Amino acid sequence: MKARFDEYTVSVNILDSYYRKLRNSLSCDVAIVGAGPSGLYAAGLLSARGRRVVVVESKLAPGGGIWGGGMGMNEIVIQSEAVHILEDLGMKAEKSGDVYVTDACLLAAKLTATAIARGAVLLNLLTAEDVCVKDGRVTGVVANRTGISGRYHVDPVMFTARAVLDATGHDAMLVNYLNKHGYRIDTPSGTFEGEGAMNVVEGENFVVERTGEVFPGLFLAGMAVCATFNGPRMGPIFGGMLLSGERAAGQIEAALAEA
Ligand SMILES: Cc1cc2nc3c(=O)[nH]c(=O)nc-3n(C[C@H](O)[C@H](O)[C@H](O)COP(=O)(O)OP(=O)(O)OC[C@H]3O[C@@H](n4cnc5c(N)ncnc54)[C@H](O)[C@@H]3O)c2cc1C
């Protein structure tokens, strides 16, 4: 039987399809940097509201710090306040006292699949190298191929967005780029304050309560919140990350609707 495809067909389809995704994402409603739990859940919620969302992830696999659970034991603990999010993702969790336990790899996969199925464009192997700032407002993300970024003298491309979410985890990369350029952010010191010591209960509350806009146009979710505002770290309990993503999506949606 004669094959109906060849090497050319394989390559040209990848190129054309990726080009369309990239081309359509260069100007969007929301650019999210970091495909961890907070960024992915926010991406799915905003996409479900009809917003055009791009997620820029530097690594090959989306999921951030989910995969390994605690110390490489791939189970996830979620408090009851966040169990509605597991239901939204179509997941079951086992109740154990006052918390729920579920599979870490399944959560990473479900968050990724849900975000994409709801319409978000996920671009992996792209590193955010900077932010765009116009008239005192963050207006986009500067990104480069992960293999190129920091290694070769090659210029990046820019994603223009009405709102940007820093969901880069412990490093709060976008906040740090703003600080590097001398911009004050909405913390007591005006700069990145670094993460505090472990306190599970306080950390889980803190990450949700302090989720929000830290500079005009730039929102924070997930561990980037604790890292920026000197909030306590909280170990491998993930309800706060998901609730922070949910809250960030609500705040971004409200800001976009108002503008
Ligand atoms: C060393 C370590 C310590 C941890 N400590 C804690 C802890 O104290 N408390 C806790 O709750 N959990 C901790 N975790 C678990 C876990 O990281 C977090 O709870 C949870 O995954 C954070 O979710 P997030 O949504 O903030 O983003 P993360 O899961 O951290 O994901 C952030 C994503 O952003 C991507 N990213 C970062 N910079 C860029 C960039 N410039 N461009 C594009 N993408 C970028 C990363 O590749 C990553 O996929 C830790 C994990 C590790 C590895």
Q: Which properties best describe this structure?
A:
single chain, 259 residues, alpha/beta, FAD/NAD(P)-binding domain, 8-stranded mixed sheet, 3-stranded antiparallel sheet, 8 helices, binds flavin-adenine dinucleotide
Query: Helix proportion of residues, in percent?
Result: 25-40%
Say what the CATH topology is. FAD/NAD(P)-binding domain
Q: What's the number of extended β-strand segments? A: 13
What is the architecture at the second tier of CATH? 3-Layer(bba) Sandwich
Assess the beta-strand content as a share of residues.
Answer: 25-35%
pLDDT averaged residue by residue? 96
Distance between the termini: 59 Å
The string of secondary-structure elements, in order, is: HEHEEHEEHEEEEHEHEEHEH
Q: How many discrete structural domains?
A: 1
Our count of helices gives 8
Spans of at least 5 consecutive residues whose pLDDT stays below 50 are none
CATH superfamily: FAD/NAD(P)-binding domain
Radius of gyration: 19 Å
Can you summarize the main beta sheet?
A: 8 strands, mixed
Which CATH class applies here?
Alpha Beta
Bound small-molecule species:
flavin-adenine dinucleotide
Would you tell me the structural class of the helices and strands? Answer: alpha/beta
Tell the overall outline.
globular
